[in-house]
């Protein structure tokens, strides 16, 4: 680990003499040094999460657990936010889309939270694990078919694999028809890329999806949410779907990327299973790095610092997971004791399916391209400079081009990690073999339309 920032070496006038800025190229290039410096303040420290947006950042593992597991003193409803209510947050702040109140389980407390979360967890619990593995494998096979047999024998895994794979799986889980699935993927991708109007694209697509499921219920996650005994309104269903998409796809992209890079990296011990790479990635490169704003309902003393009522307290999952005080007994902890999925009443309700998707995605990649390797050392990979997430910018790889067609949907390729099968929600018997580079790639429409056409052998 690099040495913490020395205040004596910080140029006069630098914002770090006041609050440490947790954004920009300097932070993105070396977040660990920033976290090490922040630990000198105690269990938490004041930072600017965006220009002119001050929050208290919890960097201690024990303190993070205390906040996450203490809903009586720390609530999630950001309508309490002092600075926002007093007009001290810039109207165009990049922190607002991440921290502003939305009527979903993430920003609710008490009975309202319990009702929304129960609908989500009950609906997720009906997802069949074997079907989810098959859906992930099928999505992975399709994406690999797009780059795996090109003569160049090279790919950029973040944009060509890790980013689209969760979007395909979720669109399938939600029961999206092709055109709506295309717009869901375009909307959520646009939100994370900062594309103007992406919110409206996603909202419009999900509104149409909900209206469709009202007319024609089906065996999918959207219908289960709508039919849950909590009797969610259409607006509530929409906001829970948005939460599942935004809270599920981007962290999965980051985890698939960093886990693949770890496994292919120069320091990975040969013979260790993919599960170990995913677990290590969640410990050391928490995909949601700094998030989960809590608001004390009264002043709270924490590690010698006073957390003022209704001032935002963010959890640094990245810093908590790498807390030096944890190092000495981390080996005694469960491999799942990391905080990448949160903890307490607002812990990720889909942590087991998320882990399964990530493992399956990496295993399928390794099985389909057995000699795949990175084109650069792991230590030279660039990370996105976002304070909210820890995700690779690119993951350049090379491999021997495939000399055989992509595996037909519903069939097992020799050496595959798990059995293939039809994807949930797809027409039974509609799958057929389809050589890579044929009509499926020429099919008009967006990513999801082309994927569904491929599963049908078109």
Layout of SSEs?
Elements (H helix, E strand, L loop, with lengths): L19 E2 L3 H5 L1 H8 L5 E7 L2 E6 L2 H8 L5 E2 L6 H4 L10 H4 L10 H16 L3 H19 L6 E3 H6 L1 H10 L4 H16 L4 H18 L5 H7 L6 H31 L9 H11 L5 E7 L3 E3 L2 E3 L5 E4 H5 L2 H4 L23 H18 L4 E2 L21 E3 L40 H4 L4 H9 L3
Parallel strand pairs: 1-2, 3-9
Antiparallel strand pairs: 2-3, 4-6, 5-11, 6-9, 7-8, 10-11
Architecture overview:
This is Cytochrome P450. Residues 400-444 are annotated as: Disordered. Residues 413-443 have a biased composition (Low complexity). It comes from Streptomyces mutomycini. Belongs to the cytochrome P450 family. The chain is an alpha+beta fold and 458 residues long. The chain has a domain at 109-288 and 347-458: Cytochrome P450 (Cytochrome p450, Orthogonal Bundle). It has 19 helices and eleven strands. It has a six-stranded mixed β-sheet. A hairpin with a 2-residue loop joins strand 7 and strand 8 (305-307). Helix 7 (129-147) packs across helix 9 and helix 7 runs parallel beside helix 17. The longest helix has 31 residues, at 234-264. It is globular, with a radius of gyration of 22 Å. It starts with 19 loop residues before the first strand and ends with a helix. The model is unreliable at 1-17 and 411-442 (pLDDT under 50).
């Amino acid at each position: 680990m690099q040495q913490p920032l020395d205040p004596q070496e910080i140029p006069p006038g630098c914002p770090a003499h006041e609050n440490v800025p947790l954004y920009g190229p300097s932070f993105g290039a070396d977040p660990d040094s920033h976290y090490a410096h922040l630990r000198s303040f105690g269990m938490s420290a004041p930072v600017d999460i965006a220009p002119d947006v001050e929050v208290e950042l919890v960097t201690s593992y024990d303190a993070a657990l205390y906040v996450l597991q203490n809903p009586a003193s720390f609530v999630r409803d950001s309508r309490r936010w002092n600075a926002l209510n007093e007009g001290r947050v810039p109207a165009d702040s990049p922190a607002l889309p991440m921290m502003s109140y939305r009527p979903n389980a993430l920003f609710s407390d008490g009975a309202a939270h319990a009702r929304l979360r129960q609908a989500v967890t009950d609906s997720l619990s009906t997802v069949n694990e074997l079907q989810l593995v098959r859906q992930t494998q099928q999505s992975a096979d399709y994406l690999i078919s797009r780059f795996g047999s090109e003569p160049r024998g090279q790919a950029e895994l973040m944009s060509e694999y890790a980013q689209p794979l969760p979007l395909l799986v979720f669109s399938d889980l939600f029961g999206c028809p092709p055109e709506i699935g295309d717009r869901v993927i375009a909307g959520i991708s646009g939100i994370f890329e900062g594309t103007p109007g992406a919110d409206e694209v996603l909202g419009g697509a999900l509104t149409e999806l909900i209206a469709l499921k009202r007319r024609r219920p089906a065996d999918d996650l959207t219908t289960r949410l709508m039919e849950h005994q909590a009797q969610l309104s259409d607006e509530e269903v929409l906001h829970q779907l948005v939460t599942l998409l935004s809270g599920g796809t981007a962290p999965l992209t980051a985890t698939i990327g960093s886990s693949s890079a770890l496994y292919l990296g120069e320091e990975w011990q040969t013979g260790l299973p993919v599960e170990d790479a995913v677990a290590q990635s969640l410990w050391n490169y928490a995909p949601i790095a700094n998030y989960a704003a809590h608001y004390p309902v009264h002043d709270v003393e924490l590690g010698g610092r006073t957390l003022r009522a209704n001032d935002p307290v963010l959890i640094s999952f990245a810093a908590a997971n790498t807390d030096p005080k944890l190092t000495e007994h981390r080996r005694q902890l469960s491999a799942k004791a990391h905080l990448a999925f949160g903890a307490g009443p607002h812990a990720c309700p889909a942590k087991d399916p998320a882990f399964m998707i990530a493992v399956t995605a990496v295993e399928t990649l390794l099985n389909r391209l057995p000699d795949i390797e990175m084109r650069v050392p792991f230590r030279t990979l660039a990370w996105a400079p976002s304070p909210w997430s820890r995700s690779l910018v690119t993951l350049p790889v090379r491999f021997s081009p495939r000399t055989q067609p992509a595996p037909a949907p519903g069939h097992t390729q020799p050496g595959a990690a798990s059995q293939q099968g039809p994807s949930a929600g797809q027409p039974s018997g509609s799958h057929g073999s389809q050589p890579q580079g044929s009509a499926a790639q020429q099919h008009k429409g967006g990513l999801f339309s082309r994927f569904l056409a491929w599963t049908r052998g078109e």
